[in-house]
Predict the structure.
Amino acid sequence: MSKQAMQYLSDNRAQMLEKLNSFLKIPSVSTDSVHKKDINKAADYLESYLSEIGFEKVEQQDTGGHPLVYAEYNKAGSDVPTVLFYGHYDVQPADPLEEWKSEPFTPEIRDGRLYARGASDDKGQVFMHLAVFEAYMKTEGKLPLNVKVCIEGEEEIGSENLYKTLREKKEQFNADFAVISDSGMVAENQPTILYGLKGFTGSEINVTGPDHDLHSGMYGGAVRNPVMALSHILASMKNEDEVVTVEGFYDGVEPLSDDERELIRNVQGEDFESSTGVSETVSEKGYTAKEHTMARPTFEINGIYGGYQGEGTKTIIPSTATAKITCRLVPGQDPERIQELLEAHIHKVAPAGVSVDVKKEKLSAKAYKVEPENALIKKAAKSYTEAFGKETIYVRMGGSIPVVEWIEEIYNIPIVLLGFGTPDDRLHSPNESFPLDSFDKGMDTLVRYWSEINSKDKH
Amino acid sequence: MSKQAMQYLSDNRAQMLEKLNSFLKIPSVSTDSVHKKDINKAADYLESYLSEIGFEKVEQQDTGGHPLVYAEYNKAGSDVPTVLFYGHYDVQPADPLEEWKSEPFTPEIRDGRLYARGASDDKGQVFMHLAVFEAYMKTEGKLPLNVKVCIEGEEEIGSENLYKTLREKKEQFNADFAVISDSGMVAENQPTILYGLKGFTGSEINVTGPDHDLHSGMYGGAVRNPVMALSHILASMKNEDEVVTVEGFYDGVEPLSDDERELIRNVQGEDFESSTGVSETVSEKGYTAKEHTMARPTFEINGIYGGYQGEGTKTIIPSTATAKITCRLVPGQDPERIQELLEAHIHKVAPAGVSVDVKKEKLSAKAYKVEPENALIKKAAKSYTEAFGKETIYVRMGGSIPVVEWIEEIYNIPIVLLGFGTPDDRLHSPNESFPLDSFDKGMDTLVRYWSEINSKDKH
């Protein structure tokens, strides 16, 4: 471990936080085209920071969508492995804005947490890596391993162009292993390495009835109400036991072994009631909430709209109704096939008198599982345990990181999912935050891990 | 019939249309508080027009909500009956604005129709009455009957304050009969008198799950999705046969007699497919679309919303979901009881893990049916037939006019529903319009009707 690098991070903590704040202040929302300039600003920020640190071949790659920031460091020597570090600089929309206690793009520290959109997902965690690289360069004049940096701007909208880039520039991005910090610990201060992620797929369902909103008194009784038709369709897809009732949905899903159930039972997970405010958890019949979130497929409606939403009443039969749905998938489920099953189901149950259009999500991902005994993962766990002073645990999680599937598919290298977020970070929600403690100990972990990687390969 | 009054309307047609346009230009949307000034402007317009015509006691009554415009004319003599003329100057919101071919509050004539929000419902029809009163005063120096004018500004939001006013100022508003032109003909140029209207009641259903939007990967499988819960609730309320499945909903509904079915069958109704653009009509099992719209109760979802509605995807479990519903009722159904049944049903089927709140519509109305053989109705039909050159028919309709129920309840006087709208008017929708032909013949009808009323009572 580099004591100088550690000292540097400690001595420059205030400046580092300041530098992170200027990154978080950029509203780089990828899903909304009004933020195109901010996306470019965030990419520019990364380009200049990487150049400052001393990376080479720093560039913004034109992906056809938002730019991908690439950089290399090759001076660690040919006997030292090369890591592909992946992260993303785009963030989720901040709405509903009125629920934020401080401005989403004006970072604020309260009770040991840094509040801002992207503080945890993923700008904060990307920044920790860059700060650690800076610390090594400034104190030792070099990095302990070779690095390829790949920070994209389209993670929150499906990483479509990243997939093309990783396939087309295989030579440029190839490495000995990959490290991604875009996930979290099961509890604050509980080192956690993910060995499994869910895949996902999604659709938008558009139901159209009359060609304009109708007076409900004049036409009620003559036409099918699109919102009611949509409600019938949605209600037919998951029952009150939280079982997905789309034919074939569970085909090929590997049963949860007793061993894995035991592993999940032993994970000190978050208290869902207190972190979400629900009166009681609900989960798929036959499975606990922890089992369902970590290892069973899910089906969620992400949004719905149709007809009048304003103040007061408007006695209409709406012309259209729309729902956005996504499924999280486990090993054994193919996203393409699931999309086909969803679409077939929707058309099968759609009632007469309305037309139903199913728009597939352009991108989707298969689930991912890795062997926890892999040496690179063991080293990450060791560093993590030392930095946090607590034994690292291995878990599967419900989130989806498409790039993980693609790196495995295209490069077939080990992927280390080393995340420092916590269950209270409120990712994708108002009041997203990241604990400063994770910031410090996470950087500590990374300083140790890179030294470990270096030392091992010298022996 | 007054030939001079008819001639006056014909000679001054352009000026009359101009005067109507200034009324239609005022965006007097009652449901939205940003339009409060416009509401007052519309009331001012009526106040000065009524004074100009020569009405007495012209005033804007403070109802606690939007003002009610009142005026009297008592000089027709005590041997002539007094009519209570009711109308409303408020309009529905114009959204979605992008679907209007011309600006909603910039009236435009195209193909013999006047396009504007309120052209038919109800400013256009209110104006016809005032124009006819003006014509009588300008040509004969008096009106053929005594008149009490009651034009309110809260019809589109439930007329809550009107109900109080009608009860509290019983002496002031009492009359021998009432005339309302806030309805339409079953087909263009087909004189139609309504002898039955539906009642209505409504609720807003609010479903709350987690206290903030959650990441669907982290929490999918642990909490109930409020949009899915709402879909299950809504789907349980009306089945695919368009039968309302709320227990007790149809209790007390009088069966449709063979005579009435025959009457409905013989009404040349509109072609629902072509006027609404649906591929096929759907209606309650066992009833035709005409029977269902005219004489059977209905249940409609007027709007729904929850979660992400923007561009792209946002993989969240929404915190809340809301639906607005209204039912149209027939004789035998009590609005209060129906509200209770809806609420009980919703709470009964609401799944665990979410909290459900049902907000009742403050106001509701019973259905209304009158005897078509009433002498005042027969006279209206005679005038209507003469003006349009076609036999008047009597129909029941699906719309609800709460004031009709209240006038019956409080004053117990005959109510003549004399409407000149047409099925193509697109009430409550973008591109609302009113045929100029209805405008001319409708005023012709009114000139004839007031003379009829006068002559009969002299005999």
Summary: Chain A touches chain B through 102 residues (CB under 8 Å).
